[in-house]
Inverse folding.
């Protein structure tokens, strides 16, 4: 069972629709109570880093989430803001984030590109990994973001994308995976990545 | 590299897709749900639904249709028509849409752009504008005036000024609909699309007039538009022929 964290500004219903389409057992998480029976967690996201952190705090699930993901090593997939809040600090609203990964979140330089970065862009993979099984390097995924992540440790960068500059768009660190692009809105390729995550959760791939 | 997006646009009336010519003389084409799924399977980049009579009939947007589509379509999905408040926006997002398109309502109450952007993020708010070519005057220096309510009411507002103001209020994308080109299949209005895309820094969507893949080539090579709306060339029986996404994308490479 995969739990999708549902906070008011997120797009959890879209992720749930995609999992349903793939016949993957899933449910929404709105409280700590809902987290008991899940073996993998997705943190979807639209909106701002600050609003997301405030929502997670007001849901009172942060402690349990950290225990499950960082402590017990349950597979975790962050999407968009769900990637950004994994780092220590975001320039968006000067927000302190989860800090599970070392690094920060910066705004695109408006002098060089249109912001937000909206549309289908290529993701170049740095190495092979079960989470990107059956997906070729340089496939196109759907992005909507004004900020991008800068990890301290380059080894966790699984995918990169060019938009004015080259930036990190996918990370993989132990049981923690996250994408800047919206897997739930990237057509069949995005659905394949969700399928891969479900396989990792089910223990089929790792 | 970021690709230019092709967005299938459906004007919806009573759950059916309808086609107009210069915002008039609509004919119904098919079920909104079936047509959206068909376009998704054909690998369209994005889908927009306009519930075109929601405003004039003073009713809320058709949420059931939005929900049905969101369960089967896994590309970005924008919904517009009849959205008056933050609650209306939240309902559409909860139903599974990613973005909200606001048009006449934003002219009446520009603050709704700001409120929407603050509540849900700029990326959620698409400002759609109906523009008509007029004589250049001191109050309309661009020579393009903003209309509302299905191109029936003229506002005296300059299109470029309105685009800049909307960006300042937090609109994340600006969709430029040409009333003159709408349903003509004669190509986009390059002049206003170019003018607006040079004057704002958010992505601009060209709309109105696409009839052949060449029109997309023209708009992407002569303007800074990031996306273009296509409808007739995908599915309208009123046009000489329809095109598949594969055919269109091959032309754009």
């Amino acid at each position: 069972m995969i739990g999708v964290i549902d906070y008011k500004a997120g797009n959890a219903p879209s992720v749930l629709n995609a999992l349903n389409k793939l016949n993957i057992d899933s449910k929404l998480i709105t409280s700590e109570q809902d987290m008991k029976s899940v073996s993998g967690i997705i943190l979807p996201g639209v909106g701002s880093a600050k609003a997301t952190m405030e929502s997670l705090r007001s849901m009172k699930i942060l402690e349990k989430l950290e225990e499950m993901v960082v402590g017990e090593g349950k597979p975790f997939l962050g999407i968009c803001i769900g990637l950004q809040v994994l780092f220590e600090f975001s320039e968006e609203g000067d927000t302190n984030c989860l800090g599970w990964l070392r690094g920060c979140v910066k705004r695109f330089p408006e002098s060089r590109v249109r912001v937000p970065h909206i549309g289908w862009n290529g993701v170049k993979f740095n190495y092979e990994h079960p989470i990107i099984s059956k997906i070729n390097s340089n496939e196109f995924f759907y992005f909507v973001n004004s900020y991008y992540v800068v990890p301290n440790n380059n080894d966790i960068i699984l995918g990169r994308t060019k938009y004015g500059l080259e930036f990190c768009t996918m990370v993989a660190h132990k049981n923690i995976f996250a994408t800047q692009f919206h897997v739930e809105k990237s057509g069949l390729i995005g659905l394949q990545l969700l399928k891969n995550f479900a396989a990792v959760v089910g223990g089929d791939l790792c | 590299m970021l690709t230019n997006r092709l967005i299938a646009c459906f004007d919806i009336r009573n759950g059916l897709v309808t086609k107009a010519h210069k915002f008039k003389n609509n004919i119904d084409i098919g079920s909104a749900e079936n047509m959206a799924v068909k376009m998704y399977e054909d690998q369209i980049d994005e889908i927009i639904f306009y519930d075109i009579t929601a405003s004039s009939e003073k009713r809320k947007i058709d949420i059931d249709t939005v929900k049905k589509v969101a369960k089967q379509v896994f590309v970005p999905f924008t919904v517009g028509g009849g959205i008056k408040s933050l609650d209306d926006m939240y309902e559409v997002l909860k139903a599974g849409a990613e973005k909200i398109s606001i048009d006449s309502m934003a002219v009446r109450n520009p603050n709704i752009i700001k409120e929407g952007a603050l509540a849900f993020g700029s990326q959620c708010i698409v400002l759609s504008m109906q523009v008509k070519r007029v004589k250049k005057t001191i109050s309309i220096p661009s020579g393009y005036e903003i209309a509302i309510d299905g191109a029936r009411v003229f506002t005296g507002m300059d299109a470029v000024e309105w685009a800049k103001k909307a960006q300042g209020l937090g609109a994340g994308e600006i969709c430029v609909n040409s009333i003159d080109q709408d349903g003509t299949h004669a190509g986009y209005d390059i002049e206003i699309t170019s003018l607006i895309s040079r004057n704002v820094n958010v992505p601009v969507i060209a709309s109105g007039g696409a009839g052949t893949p060449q029109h997309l080539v023209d708009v992407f090579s002569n303007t800074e538009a990031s996306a273009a709306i296509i409808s007739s060339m995908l599915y309208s029986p009123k046009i000489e022929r329809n095109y598949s996404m594969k055919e269109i994308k091959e032309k754009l490479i």
